[in-house]
Amino acid sequence: MTSSSNTVAVVDYGMGNLRSVSQAVQAVAQDSGVQVIITSRPEDVRAATRVVLPGQGAMPDCMRELRESGLLESVLEAAAQKPLFGVCVGMQMLLDHSAEGDTPGLGLMPGEVVKFDLAGRLQADGSRFKVPQMGWNQVRQAQPHALWAGVPDDSYFYFVHSFYARPSDVRHSVGEADYGGRFTAAVARDNIFATQFHPEKSASHGLALFRNFLHWKP
Known about the structure:
It is found in: Cytoplasm. The chain is of the alpha/beta class. 25% of the residues lie in helices and 32% in strands. Helix 1 crosses helix 6.
């Protein structure tokens, strides 16, 4: 692969929802001239034009697998210079630290990852809040961003998570949702955009985010 090819690398470090993420990106890349690859090779990540960092499961496992896969350095290099889209735990990993397993993150965005504290709290319908949050929730576009183009404010996206990001700088929180209180559902800084929700499971609005990412020039 040459660095001049228009390629999106979906990083395979053993912990991502790879098939559904890559299929969603491939679906929006059809007839666009963009090639989508799933790769566990650092050289492919370095050569790609754009990078998607998926993640699911526990933060300590994700960080360990990213290190042991040999992909950590190439992901950090990508985050410093090319468009990068983080998904779910792939978003949480971008921050400084997670309370899940007392785990250091990649330090690409100041802030921490904390757990929902909703014990004994009741929702409007009288049912208890469940952790993890699992299902559809509205996302308010807290800051304007190119990747929101064509996505109506307060659109629904699909979530599965017990922990959420708390950026130190409110300007990095570009999407917010409510689950027992406001929390950050999407972050962005410079050439990085990431979501706590799963765009690949969020129907047309999720696909719109990936489509915008293919053409984003931060």
